[in-house]
Amino acid sequence: MVLKGLRKIEAAARQTLKPPPILTIPQWADKYRxxxxxxxxxxxPWRTSRVEVARGPMMxxxxxxxxxxxxMSCTQLMKTSLLENVIGYYAHLDxxxxxxxxxxxxxxxxxSKERLVPMAKATPVLQAILGDSKSRSSDDTLxxxxxxxxxxxxxxxxxPTNLAMRAIRITLLDEIDKYxxxxxxxxxxxxxxxTSTFNLTNNSLHIRTCSPTMVETSRIYKxxxxxxxxxxxxECPHCRYSQVLDFFRHxxxxxxxxxxxxxxxxxxxxxxxxxxxTEAERMRIITTKGAIRWRQTRSFTCCDEKQEPLKTxxxxxxxxxxxxxxxxxxxxxKAVPNxxxxxxxxxxxxxxxxxxxxxxxxxxxxxxxxxxxxxxxxQLGLPFEATALKKLESNVLLSxxxxxxxxVPVGGVVLTAGIDVQTGGSVNExxxxxxxxxxxxxxxxxxxxxxxFYGDPARPELWAELDAYLLTPFQHESGGQMLIRAACxxxxxxxxxxxxxxxxxxxxxxVWAIKGAADRSGQWSPVWPIPKLDPKKTRQTGYKPVMLxxxxxxxxxxxxxxxxxxxxxxxxFPADRPEGYFDQLMSENLVLEKKAGVTVRKWVAKKGHAxxxxxARVYAYGALAGLRAVxxxxxxxxxxxxxxxxxxxxxxxxxxxTAETAARLNEALTxxxxxxxxPPSPRQRxxxxxxxxx
Length: 694
Prior knowledge:
alpha/beta, 31 strands, 8-stranded mixed β-sheet
């Protein structure tokens, strides 16, 4: 018995002294990790090949020489899984101090509760290490996990003291484009400075992840440009040519002769042989181990020649770390250092969306600047360039003046108003300046009227005059009459109470008092605020203005002013509009400014230029956003209604701001459509087939 006991002790000692297995991050995840259905749709054993594109960034974690990893990708693809698996691997096999940061305190707690805790509960080897804090020591919390040999601290990027208080070996910085610069500087640099003591042993690691935002201000895009710029290559199942899938280059779909898009016919086409890939072929590629190969694509100079790896196509494949290192086409030398490994991928590599679904999202968003940026950022994993930075002269807009057939031209669907309040100050020239705008399909717009009401905004007589004007009907070219369906009034001046009093009694008419949202670090608020529900507050006391995202609204309006052709987004102006109005539309410029090392976008007023017309137009656009958010107004459906009225030559009013009434009238007035010929088959080659390049 004694001998048997000694053998057990000896076996336990050998097991304790046994070094941890040498595994890559994908190998660890495939061997040990289990998925919980509480944090995703799929449960059971982890399989890296389920989203094969994620293998590259995970392999780079253990790649010799890599000290920085940047992952710039679309949403719901690989960023969070990378962070989770890195935490699990190091907590289990190589414990050390780790720091994970999120933009806000709420995001920190959400990551801990919704991602970390379910992973620990579902994965047996992590249960005792990162398990539920209720079953562990009092030092363990949602934001601090201590284990033998290390810990995991979770902090918000807005807490510079916490970012600087610990020595860290591995930093995991998530959603870095949403970080706000603090008084101490850039949170990214503050967090990564904590690894300075580990840099001496060359075993520190920084991982940055995010979907990009704007080209000019995106932290993750800047970080990717500083990396070796790895791209995912896949082979054509027909000709075996290796290529990087690009939505605008490789995805094509059918269009009718009238220009109508058929996104459900969309498919990937090889750039070499031109053969269409079926959805099954694409899915097989992106879910097969080793089918996606990451290669460096950053340009370099060697042998006195600047070379582009995407053109020279010279790489040395490292089978151990699954990466292609760019090399000189003349001497064969590895030319791009791998100290900073960068990764970029979009939804074409995702098994959770089909190509037709992706094409449909593009067709739905391509004509709206805000939706278009969202598509670039969240679906393609690419930054969006602010076209509002392009120069626009007032004389270009002046040349657009035209004679309308009625107060509201035939394309107008709904009327909104924007009101700017001016107190007049010492010159005693108080006034309300109001622009009425008609909006049509694709947010094509017509400036219907611009009226100034002179007087003291503190006097009720001035507001009574505005009220009567907002109730005035406008003649539509189809023969009916339209009313102003929504209005936004600036309350940020010296008369907020008067504005609140006016708007409070007219909420049913969609008259809203607004204030500009306080945006920071270039991260602009949405045009219309997303409602926040607080279960602790059951009632709202007093009147509160709408916090309008004026910066985002200004950018959207400016991008519409840049549209040169009639159609979606184009801005029309009446023939009698004075020249001074157009000067005011050009009264502010969008500039780029550096603060604490971070580039931010900022609207700057031109000196000596009045800007009331610019503000009024922005507020009118805000009122349209309010109709959509509050009243669920559907602009495209309303456009169909107006077309139906024109078709039937009916004189009734053409405008309605409730989706229910719009649907009922649309059904009653729209004649039954004739059955159209089916569009061409998605596999059918056609001269009308084209890729819509934006």
